[in-house]
Write a structure and sequence with these properties.
The protein is mainly alpha-helical. It has 4 helices and no strands.
């Protein structure tokens, strides 16, 4: 397995996630409730936009954590092995999502229980 390929892919994913975090920082700031500046519907829209930005950041943080964990597995020479059964994870699966920590069998088993 070409861990250099996966490491480069993971580093690119991390860079994009961190860049996105920077670009959307203002969207997560508290919404001003100045009655004179904006109307009630505009305020509600701004609050909804803020809530969506906060949720996107929560998901982005989880993804960054998964990326960091995958990079650590590369460093520890355990990348590409299932964290549950320790069998090899299929290369196609890793190509689709290099952050995946489990093989298909263990992932399916986890969903059914």
């Amino acid at each position: 397995m070409d861990t250099l390929f996966f490491k480069a892919k993971l580093l690119t994913m991390r860079k994009e996630a961190l860049s996105s975090r920077e670009r959307t920082g203002n969207d997560r700031k508290p919404v001003e409730l100045d009655q004179q500046a904006i109307g009630r519907l505009s305020r509600m829209d701004a609050l909804q936009q803020q809530a969506m930005a906060i949720e996107a950041e929560r998901r982005r943080s989880l993804q960054i954590g998964r990326i960091e964990a995958a990079l650590k597995r590369i460093e520890d020479d355990f990348f590409g092995f299932c964290l549950i059964c320790e069998e090899k994870i299929g290369e196609k699966r890793l190509t689709l999502d290099p952050t995946t920590p489990t093989c298909v069998k263990c992932a399916d088993h986890g969903r059914s229980t």
